[in-house]
Amino acid sequence: MKRRKFELWSGVTVLFLVLFLIFLVYPMLGILKQAVISKDGQFTLEQFVKFFSQSYYSKTILNSFKVSITLTIVTLIIGIPLSYFYSFYRLKGAKLMFVLSILCCMSAPFIGAYSWILLLGRSGVITQFLKNTFGIQLGSIYGFRGIMLVQSLKFFPLVFVYMNGAFKNIDNTLMEASANMGCTGVKRFFQIIMNLSMPTILAASLMVFMQSFADFGTPLLIGEGFRTFPVEIYNQYLGENGTDHNFAAAISVIAIAVTAVVFFIQQYATSRYKFSINALHPIEKKKPKGIQGVLMYLYSYLLIGIAFMPQVYIIYLSFRNCDQAVFKPGYSLANYQAAVKKLLVRSIKNTMMLGIGALAIIIIISILIAYLVVRRSSFLNHAIDTMAMLPYIMPGSVIGIALVIAFGSKPLALTGTIWIMLISFVIRRMPYTIRSATATLMQIPMSIEEASISLGASKLKTFTQITVPMMSNGILSGAILSWVAIVTELSSSIILYNNKNITLTMSAYVAISRGNYGLAAAFAAILTVVTAASLIIYLLVSKAEDIKL
């Protein structure tokens, strides 16, 4: 019996190894092949030479680094204080503040850019109001500054949520001990709290950096002359001014190399801060008082209010009368009626079908990989875990191109079908749930499973009825992140979609790109409601206080 169970898990290992080789490694090798093999079948580095020798192209990587590094610093500066106030003080309306901040970072990447253009663009509402009323001429929102504005307001909640988890793990006795030694206030924050939270700060920095580096929608809509890496990949693959698939593949290879280097640097930095803390005595939240309390409330609610404004404004605009790019006086459901005629039903159906299907596959994969890594540790299982994390460090457009190259012809001709979208969503978004499930299983003592087996339960029954239910909180936490990332996915979908498999996110983006702002607002509003409903349902079902990243 023991041997049969061992063979079962060995079979699972082999199955995952084969699947990952086919759907992940093979497409990546396809990109590499297209980058170094010329059209006449000769090995060449011509595409790489072209990229690095012409500043027009090589500048895109510098621009992406400029945005991502600056953004990481900005989000840490504004996100850490917010998390500190939330975790160490009893703020009124803290739950609402948390939910709104999550909705900011879980919205589709381009919605913020689209909304801020309508607010602060050349003909934006705020721009025109300040100009006509006070004679104040705002600077351009386009380019580097616009990208920074949109991305910082979207990604600082990632730092906020990460740091909440770190601050909860700080033992109150450490705070009391530092106070007894005269280390209080700002000095204690920097010397004690920040040092204890350094692994989480590095993890949050990596998440923000990767999200910014891979963001396609924001730079495309608001960047104008400021060109970034993902946008250049898209332009070379599907651009209106001519395409070069070999060059697009070469840029994709460079993108993979760059993000991998950043990932390993972060892993090395994190290894320098290896320690564990356990909050046996959790932090006792204090009541904010006096001018300090007023400033805390002002900072917290003003920051989240500004960050959430694009979502509110989009919903408002969805009810305004509109003629293409011009919003007119009056309100109606005309935009939603137009959306119904423009693939709304199909978009919602595809979004739900792809989302639920991809999430079900992700959950199964995550549970099995977590068990293989934690309970059946081996070289092959850790290799599978490493392969599963590769999409975490790759821009979505790269994955989209890789899948088209790999499955654009027989024997697996999937390009243009809904199946290639499903594969893309699973590949892109499984790392969230895998990491969450693995972290949860590591905290479950092996003795519980051993006790179940000693009482006569089989290993399989123990796994399905004891281990998996105990992993449920971690699985749910990762699953909600995967789900929202799936329904708002843009960068890989724009390479893979067509009218048959179009999603809500793509419908909104297509409407924006065609200058039909009212229709775009309707699609974006529905997408925002779907995202909000997903989060609320998760919080009700899981009865969780927050979301752990």
State the gist of this model.
This protein is an all-alpha fold and about 550 residues long. Helix content is about 75%, strand content about 0%. It has helices at about 1-35, 45-55, 55-90, 95-105, 110-120, 125-135, 145-170, 170-180, 185-195, 200-215, 215-220, 230-240, 245-270, 290-315, 335-340, 345-375, 380-390, 395-405, 420-440, 445-455, 460-470, 470-485, 495, 505-515, 515-540, and strands at about 320-325, 325-330.
Describe this structure in words.
There is one protein chain. This protein is mostly helical. 75% of the residues lie in helices and 2% in strands. The protein contains 25 helices and two strands. The protein has helices at residues 2-36, 46-53, 55-88, 94-106, 109-120, 125-134, 144-168, 172-180, 185-196, 198-214, 217-222, 229-238, 245-271, 290-317, 334-341, 344-375, 379-389, 396-406, 418-442, 446-454, 459-470, 472-487, 493-496, 504-513, 517-542; strands at residues 320-323, 326-331. It has a two-stranded antiparallel sheet. Helix 4 (94-106) crosses helix 14, helix 12 (229-238) runs parallel beside helix 18 and helix 16 packs antiparallel against helix 17 (379-389). The longest helix is centred in the N-terminal third of the chain and has 35 residues, at 2-36. The chain is globular and about 70 Å long. It starts with a helix and ends in a 7-residue tail after the last helix.
